[in-house]
Design brief:
- The chain is of the alpha+beta class.
- The protein is 47% helix and 22% strand.
- The chain has 5 domains: 91 residues, N Utilization Substance Protein A, Chain:P, domain 4 (2-Layer Sandwich); 61 residues, Nucleic acid-binding proteins (OB fold (Dihydrolipoamide Acetyltransferase, E2P), Beta Barrel), CATH 2.40.50; 76 residues, 2-Layer Sandwich (GMP Synthetase, Chain A, domain 3); 63 residues, 2-Layer Sandwich (GMP Synthetase, Chain A, domain 3), CATH 3.30.300.20; 86 residues.
- The chain is built from 15 helices and 14 strands.
- Strand 12 and strand 13 form a beta hairpin.
């Protein structure tokens, strides 16, 4: 009997990943609870199981107690308490195990759906894949194998909730780690990522090893590596671009496949004005603005896309406005342009402080320059609104 008890404890500890000593403690506590309930007194009771022999001892007020004489009811109480405590231990074990796996990819099979939530069997426990964390357009059938990252693990009354995600950007990172050895070895680094799940993702990569092509390593021979990732994502388009320390170069890379003619950076506004030819405009902006939106998130810059004509008109309007301000010459205008200010709207937005602190312009003059830009910006906005109204009527 005693050896059988030890075997059962070993089996439970192994199957449920519960500390062996915790199980002994649970059984001892359950025995005390059952004995106390049997006697119905506030006396001091204790129980002890030898961890090596399995010998069980019980005590009442410090005196040995023959538990075999207690009968069936205390045994039922012990069983119920023990089951409850083991379940609590198992929940604690599951919480600890999966809390440590947050951000990692797991694989499981779909067991059922509850509303818009797919229930995934992970082996020891079940996890939830909410509709909001499923890639748009995909459906999951019962029995289907699903891969996702553990997004969140939280305790709820009587259970542990494990939330999975296939839409989180980290899911892409983990897939690259599985498919690209250079990423796992840290010879290729994923420096930034921007994703619109189900549609398009941009990943910026870099390597310090001149013998390795970071983009080529991620794509694989004949696109084999990136193909596996795209298939896992049900056809989601992935752009792999080269990261660069130069913000201008990085922004140009991020806007690929569109080609940029010129990039002006305004650090005061964290804004990049990118000039592209007319035939590249729709490509740079992308369907419903997706390409420029993802490039902005990837680079952490606000990006404005302009055609050469728009850029030239903005610059000419800015220069003309500044020249009308007293004591503003071409040298001063060049300094303003060097700040990345390319329109009267930009100048109005940055205000006089950078002109004073960075360019050393006297404050009264800087204020006049910004005021002039604000007036012209207002005129431009009125003119643009009027043109839009006319265009709408014609349409």
């Amino acid at each position: 009997m005693n050896q059988e008890l030890l075997k059962q404890i070993e089996m439970i500890a192994r199957e449920k990943n519960i500390d062996r000593d915790s199980i002994f403690s649970d059984i001892e506590a359950a025995m005390v609870s059952g004995i106390r309930k049997h006697f119905g007194t506030d006396e001091e009771f204790a129980a002890q199981i030898d961890r090596y022999t399995g010998e069980i001892q019980a005590f009442r007020n410090g005196e040995p107690l023959d538990i075999k004489k207690l009968g069936r009811i205390p045994a039922q109480t012990v069983k119920q308490v023990m089951i409850q405590r083991l379940r609590e231990d198992e929940r604690g074990s599951i919480f600890t195990e999966y809390q440590e796996k947050v951000g990692e990819i797991v694989s499981g099979s779909v067991t059922r759906s509850e509303g818009n939530v797919a229930i995934i069997n992970l082996g020891r426990t079940e996890a939830l894949l909410p509709k909001s964390e499923q890639i748009p357009g995909e459906t999951h059938r019962v029995g289907e194998r699903v891969r996702a990252i553990i997004y969140e693990v939280k305790e709820a009354p009587g259970q542990i909730k494990i939330i999975l995600s296939r839409t989180h950007p980290d899911f892409i990172l983990r897939l690259f780690e599985q498919e690209v050895p250079e990423v796992v070895e840290h010879t290729v680094l994923l420096k930034a990522l921007a994703r619109e799940a189900g549609y398009r993702t941009k990943v910026a990569v870099v390597t310090a090893d001149s013998k390795i092509d970071a983009v080529g390593a991620c794509v694989g021979v004949r696109g084999s590596r990136i193909k596996n990732i795209v298939e896992e994502l049900n056809g989601e388009k992935i752009d792999i671009v080269r990261w660069n320390e130069s913000s201008a170069i990085f922004i140009g890379n991020a806007l690929k496949p569109a080609d940029s003619q010129e990039i002006a950076l305004c650090f005061e506004l964290n804004r990049a004005t990118v000039v592209v030819s007319d035939d590249q405009l729709s490509l740079a902006i992308g369907k419903r603005g997706q390409n420029v939106r993802l490039a902005a998130r990837l680079t952490d810059w606000d990006i404005d896309i302009l055609t050469p004509v728009e850029y030239r008109n903005n610059m000419e309007n800015l220069v003309r406005t500044l020249r009308a301000v007293a004591e503003v010459d071409d040298t001063l205008i060049d300094k303003v342009l060097a700040l990345g200010v390319v329109s009267v709207l930009d100048l109005e937005e940055i205000g006089p402080t950078p002109l004073v602190e960075t360019l050393g312009i006297p404050e009264p003059q800087a204020v006049e320059m910004v005021k002039a830009a604000a007036v012209e910006a207002s005129k431009t906005e009125i003119k643009t609104a009027a043109q839009a109204a006319i265009q709408q009527e014609n349409d």
